[in-house]
Design goal:
By secondary structure, this protein is mainly alpha-helical. The chain has a domain of 84 residues. It is 44% helix and 2% strand. The chain has nine helices and two strands, in the order ββααααααααα. Strands 1-2 form a two-stranded antiparallel ribbon. The longest helix has 24 residues. It is elongated and about 105 Å long. The relative contact order is 0.07. The model has no long low-confidence stretch (mean pLDDT 83).
């Protein structure tokens, strides 16, 4: 076949190109099938988020009571505790306390007095700033408890009088 003096040959698609296009079409199909199952209803209606998300989270049962709830019954501990003075609140160590606030006899907070409890925050981690108090739990008083030397909740005057 000629066109304006040039010979034009038919262009055939290379066989590997058709396979690549078939694989690509399969990947696109699998992605769209996965996306239809993975993206929750309501996503993208009013922006790049799930519109019902806040309502779902608000419906969850409250687990944390907050430091104000602790202050109602334990003001002496909160005023004296060095962790609270530095911004670490009670539930960071003792766990969620909403059930304890509702029924303080039935639900007691965790007693944190093991080396692992203290090492969770004070164990040596390279990325922490130099001013943050860190220890190597294997070398720092390895046979004792941290609370043997360090007071987490200093005793109040009333507790001292009872001893």
């Amino acid at each position: 076949m000629t066109h304006r003096g040039f010979t034009v040959t038919e262009v055939k698609m290379a066989p590997q190109l058709s396979r690549i296009l078939l694989v690509f079409a399969g990947i696109v199909f699998m992605f769209l099938a996965f996306r239809s199952q993975a993206v929750p209803d309501g996503f993208g209606e009013d922006g790049f988020y799930r519109k019902q998300g806040p309502a779902v989270v608000a419906a969850h049962e409250l687990k944390h009571a907050g430091i104000d709830a602790c202050k109602d019954c334990h003001p002496d501990k909160i005023d004296a505790t060095p962790h609270v003075k530095k911004g670490v609140h009670c539930e960071s160590c003792h766990g969620p306390a909403a059930k304890h606030v509702e029924d303080w006899e039935a639900s007691k907070p965790k007693v944190m007095n093991t080396r692992a409890d203290c090492a969770r925050c004070h164990g040596m981690i390279v990325g922490r700033p130099d001013w943050y108090p860190q220890i190597d739990p294997k070398e720092h008083n390895p046979d004792g408890k941290c609370v043997d030397c360090h007071e987490v909740h200093p005793a109040t005057d009333a507790e001292e009088a009872q001893r």
